[in-house]
Amino acid sequence: MIRFDHITKKYPGTTRPALNSIDVEILRGEFVFLVGASGSGKSSCLRLVLKEEKPTSGSIHVLGQDLRSISNRKVPYFRRNMGVVFQDFRLLPNKTVFDNVAFSLQVIGKSRGFIQEAVPDTLKMVGLAEKSQRLPHELSGGEQQRVAIARAIVNKPQILLADEPTGNLDPTTSAEIMSLLASINASGTTVIMATHEAGIVDQMQRRVIELVHGEIVRDERQGGYATASIPTIGPAPTTDTPASEPVPVAYARPAAAPEPSLTHPSAPVPETSVSLHQAAAAAVAAASAATPAPIAAAPVAARATDDPAVDDPAIDAPAVEGVLTTPVPPMTRPVLPAAQNDDPEQLTLAEKLGLRAPGEKPDQTGEQNVGPTR
Ligand SMILES: Nc1ncnc2c1ncn2[C@@H]1O[C@H](COP(=O)(O)OP(=O)(O)O)[C@@H](O)[C@H]1O
Ligand SMILES: [Mg+2]
Fold first, then answer.
1. Ligand 2 centroid distance, CA of 90 (Å)
2. Best mutation site among 44, 195, 367 for ligand 1 pocket (most ligand atoms within 8 Å of CB)
3. Ligand 1 pocket residue status of 265, Cβ below 6 Å
4. Could you tell me which of 218, 156, 167, 222 has the C-alpha nearest to residue 190?
5. Does the global pTM surpass 0.90?
6. Is Ribosomal protein there in the keyword field (predicted)?
7. Residue 339 DSSP symbol
8. CATH code for the domain of 119
9. In angstroms, what is the span from residue 33 Cα to ligand 2's centroid?
10. What is the pLDDT of residues 8-38, one digit of tens each?
11. 76 belongs to a structural domain
């Protein structure tokens, strides 16, 4: 589904490559953690998958396509197969929850009818059905990230890329976000999540690819953040891990007090928090109880349009109902202040979400940072 062959990425003006001859393959339905210290190359990997950056050498295949063969004009269509979630949520501060999620469908020209069905279905899936008319600043950090996740999956992408999605959240809220991502993965979406939070990685027991200075030093099928096992160096081993793998035994560890700081790579394995255990168990139970309904790529509009008013009656709305039925506990503690209202970045949100190619809009701000956070 995603393959890097000898990928080296060198940014202009730097001496050391951000990624150095990476070989890796990620299969359909996998949940993969990309771990490593700040600057190790995690975000670069995600930006390369999105074709926001070009490799200096090597080839990348995503969904069967060599990225070199995708013209700039076609990049926005290509990106519709992918949802992206960032550490800082990147919601439109003056739009309601509903409108934030609807935004990504409007930009690609989906019909009003499609939007009216797909948005509530997706908000229900992420546990925010009751909050569709709220503004982002009226939500907790975890809820804001749920909105961002809803926006990323409302068009049923095949791949969800998450760059430090829990980086601004407390451990309990992070656990809830992880359970949501696990459920999305269980329904068939390939999930790649960059993080340097050891506790989360240890809890989830999924595939772990570890980067150090732009090189893969470990690729473990069911790893933790720090492991006593001998690291596997080199290309990813072929894995046939199914999307909805049963809960690993690690979840059964006895619960203990939450660990507030889980970010040090060499720290000992943190204790399981009660909430993570419960949230993850609930999510997995819900996911396995539900009929697995793979999130297929939604039909892509035949033409490019940036006009939100354009109606496309040819596109029918496939329901996402039933994919996740996990009850979501209310979250009352805001973690982050609302996004800045005067943030000029919102003008290029469509670019940041990969819905428009950078530079596609005539009134673009010229801003270069359109990808996942670093
Ligand atoms: N646009 C850029 N220009 C120059 N250097 C960059 C750019 N983006 C990332 N880098 C450098 O590439 C390396 C990897 O960065 P990044 O992929 O953001 O790592 P991570 O996400 O793991 O923190 C770092 O040394 C970083 O400074
Ligand atoms: Mg980063």
1. 15
2. 44
3. no
4. 156
5. no
6. no
7. P
8. 3.40.50.300
9. 13
10. 999 999 999 999 999 999 999 999 999 999 9
11. no
